[in-house]
Amino acid sequence: MILIVGLGNPGPEYSKTRHNVGFMLIDRLKNSNFTDVSSTKFQGELFKIQNLLLLKPTTFMNLSGRSVKAVVDFYKPERVIVIHDDLDLNFGVVKFKKGGGNGGHNGLKSIDALMGADYERVRIGIGRSAHKGESAVTGHVLGEFNAEEKEGLEKILDYCENALNELIKTDIDAVSQKFSTKKGIL
């Protein structure tokens, strides 16, 4: 079984923010063939088809690990893939890897604290704000994509969807070599 987790924050006020790119991708992956197996014990929206689970934690970003751990403890998947925004990558850059640091990402910190860091990652670049400081970072990740970014966002999500469809059939190294980008896909 494979668990794909899209990180984000619940609620309509966050739905179009940079921090919710993981949720956006899960919404694209899930279709009418998936069964909703959500439960309060999972602390998230959980969908299943055969040996594939899609999870959108509803714990808010900083507590994402609680939801991921609850699903992992119940279903015991062989692989966990986490989709998240990444400030350290320019907008449009996509990278695939296994393990590593959290780069200050609170969702990853939460998962790492409860389960360790040995999971696969789909890192979607959102770039950094031109302004410095913690409030600028928070404003950037919780801000909506600007007009130029919105134009490219669908291409990025299409690209990541294709990569994920391949990733569930093969390993992270093969997908990283084929799909990781240095300059972005736009």
UniProtKB/TrEMBL annotation:
TRNA binds at residues 14, 60, 62, 106. The active site is at 19 (proton acceptor). It catalyses: an N-acyl-L-alpha-aminoacyl-tRNA + H2O = an N-acyl-L-amino acid + a tRNA + H(+). The keyword tRNA-binding applies. It is found in: Cytoplasm. Keywords: Cytoplasm, Hydrolase, RNA-binding, tRNA-binding. The record marks 85 as: Stabilizes the basic form of H active site to accept a proton. GO terms for biological process: protein quality control for misfolded or incompletely synthesized proteins; rescue of stalled ribosome. Its EC number is 3.1.1.29. GO terms for molecular function: peptidyl-tRNA hydrolase activity; tRNA binding. Its main location: cytoplasm. The keyword Ion transport does not apply. One of its GO terms (cellular component) is cytoplasm. The record marks 9 as: Discriminates between blocked and unblocked aminoacyl-tRNA. InterPro entries: Pept_tRNA_hydro, Pept_tRNA_hydro_CS, Pept_tRNA_hydro_sf. HAMAP family: Pept_tRNA_hydro_bact. Monomer. Belongs to the PTH family. NCBIfam families: pth. Hydrolyzes ribosome-free peptidyl-tRNAs (with 1 or more amino acids incorporated), which drop off the ribosome during protein synthesis, or as a result of ribosome stalling. Catalyzes the release of premature peptidyl moieties from peptidyl-tRNA molecules trapped in stalled 50S ribosomal subunits, and thus maintains levels of free tRNAs and 50S ribosomes. This is Peptidyl-tRNA hydrolase. It comes from Campylobacter showae RM3277. The lineage of its organism: Bacteria, Pseudomonadati, Campylobacterota, Epsilonproteobacteria, Campylobacterales.
